[in-house]
Design brief:
The structure is a single chain. This protein has 117 residues and is mainly alpha-helical. 56% of the residues lie in helices and 5% in strands. The protein has one domain: Orthogonal Bundle (Multidrug-efflux Transporter Regulator, Chain: A, Domain 2), CATH 1.10.1660. It has a two-stranded antiparallel sheet. The longest helix is centred in the C-terminal third of the chain and has 22 residues.
Length: 117
């Protein structure tokens, strides 16, 4: 498992529409049972549920999970503190988190450019 200081080294999110809980677990370096727990604690995190109550996460869910992970593991927030932080004004987002998201988008765009060539 990655150390909290290595949050920037998470895998690139593939260009897919839906992800299973196992895929999200690998992409966010968080165990599946933790993801299910976070669904209960963070109202913003609502994956699509289909047949047999199977969860399917979308890209924005993965970005949110990575943000939650960063708040809890890197910044030392409690669950309640992270919930309050996320429900607050989004314009107060950490610049470091914004930089990580920009780097992620750049990597994905480079990947798409290579595919198109």
């Amino acid at each position: 498992m990655l150390e909290p200081s290595h949050n920037k080294e998470m895998p690139v999110i593939p260009a897919k529409r839906y992800f299973t809980i196992g895929e999200v677990s690998e992409l966010c370096v968080v165990k599946p049972h933790v993801l299910r727990y976070w669904e209960q604690e963070f109202p913003q995190l609502e994956p699509v549920k289909r047949r047999g109550n199977r969860r399917y996460y979308q890209r924005q869910d993965i970005v949110l999970i990575r943000q939650i992970r960063g708040l809890l593991y890197d910044d030392g927030y409690t669950i309640g503190g992270a919930r309050t932080h996320l429900s607050g004004d989004n314009s107060q987002k950490d610049t470091s988190q914004t930089k990580i998201e920009i780097q992620q988008i750049q990597a994905e765009l480079q990947e798409i450019l290579e595919i198109l060539k």
